[in-house]
Design a protein that fits this description.
By secondary structure, the chain is an alpha/beta fold. Helix content is 23%, strand content 29%. It is built from 6 helices and 17 strands. Strands 1, 2, 3, 4, 5, 6 and 17 form a 7-stranded mixed beta sheet that branches. A 5-stranded parallel beta sheet has the order 8-15-9-10-11, covered by helices on one side. The protein has a 3-stranded antiparallel beta sheet with strand order 12-13-14, with no helix packed on it. The longest helix has 22 residues, at 281-302. It is elongated and about 65 Å long. The relative contact order is 0.18.
């Protein structure tokens, strides 16, 4: 029986691990990997203390710092289900191992919704990215494409027209984002928009070199030369393990209050898996720390 289980190994989970260890809580951190979405980020320029650092390197530093403390880790085994028990919580892993704790923190993050086209997986981190805020500056002065037609895609395109040589916006449907964003984009002179076009393939050698799109009306293919592809078709919360246990919103995010408390007493959540706005590394790390401090206070009341 652990005092605390932290489920997730991204910024929120690793930050929570450091704070839990410093509070001398008997803690287990269990996660399918270390770093989560941040591993897919080419460069981070907005995390305090680093003018520039690769996402995977930053997460390695997080993990190294946490691992200096006596905290048990189970990495490589995803959690399939979280259940409430009389004593607290039980976690069932993908390998059917079971772990118990008095309190738990869900910090499982989100995963990008993927296009599932040839070249996407091969060039992830080599020109394909899922975060214009994180990786946009890396592509300054280059020709890039943004895939998507909602607000996240439009905002990414607006960010990129300021720094890229040229931006191509490709949407499967007519643009569905806010009219004010569409109006701003129409003023950009280095933007091309292709609506009702399907992304067929991402091409390249070592790095991305081009994009193949298909006109849904004529079925004709068109190749566009780009060095960066920003896929902005949404994110999926990794909240399946608590579906039916904790309250989720209509986007599948775990609903929390300002103290990181879920609808289940003793169950906390932090980072991108929650309904907290602004999915950023620094925000997730702060939320992870806050969740542990709240969980520690709750445990003190139990004893």
């Amino acid at each position: 029986m652990y005092d605390l289980m932290i489920i997730g190994g991204g910024p929120a989970g690793l930050s929570a691990g450091v704070y839990a260890a410093r509070k001398k809580l008997n803690t287990l951190l269990i996660s399918g990997d270390i770093g989560g979405q941040v591993n897919w980020t080419l460069g981070v320029e907005n995390y305090l203390g680093y003018q520039f650092i690769e996402g995977a390197e930053l997460m390695d530093k997080f993990h190294t710092q946490m691992s200096q403390y006596p905290l048990e880790q189970k990495i490589g085994d995803k959690v399939s289900r979280v259940e409430k028990t009389e004593e607290g919580f039980e976690v069932i892993s993908g390998s059917e191992d079971r772990y118990q704790s008095r309190v738990a923190i869900i910090a499982t993050g989100k995963r990008p919704r993927q296009l599932n086209v040839p070249g996407e997986k091969e060039f992830t981190g080599k020109g394909v990215t899922y975060c214009a805020i994180c990786d946009g500056p890396v592509f300054a002065g280059q020709r890039v494409a943004v895939i998507g037609g909602g607000n996240s895609a439009l905002e990414s395109a607006l960010d990129m027209v300021k720094i890229a040589e040229h931006v191509t916006l490709v949407s499967l449907t007519p643009l569905t984002g806010d009219p004010i964003l569409i109006d701003k984009l129409e003023k950009a002179d280095n933007l091309s928009v292709f609506t009702e076009y399907q992304t067929e393939e991402i091409q390249g050698n070592v790095l991305v070199e081009g994009l193949v799109i298909k006109d849904l009306k004529s079925a004709e293919n068109k190749k566009i030369e780009v060095t960066g592809v920003f896929i902005e078709i949404g994110l999926i919360p990794n909240s399946e393990s608590v579906n039916g246990l904790a309250d989720l919103n209509d986007r599948g995010e775990v609903i929390i209050n300002c103290a990181c408390e879920t609808s289940v007493t003793g169950l906390y959540a932090a980072g991108d898996v929650t309904n907290v706005p602004e999915k950023q590394i620094v925000v997730a790390a702060g939320e992870g720390a806050k969740a542990v401090l709240q969980a520690h206070r709750y445990l003190q009341r139990l004893t």
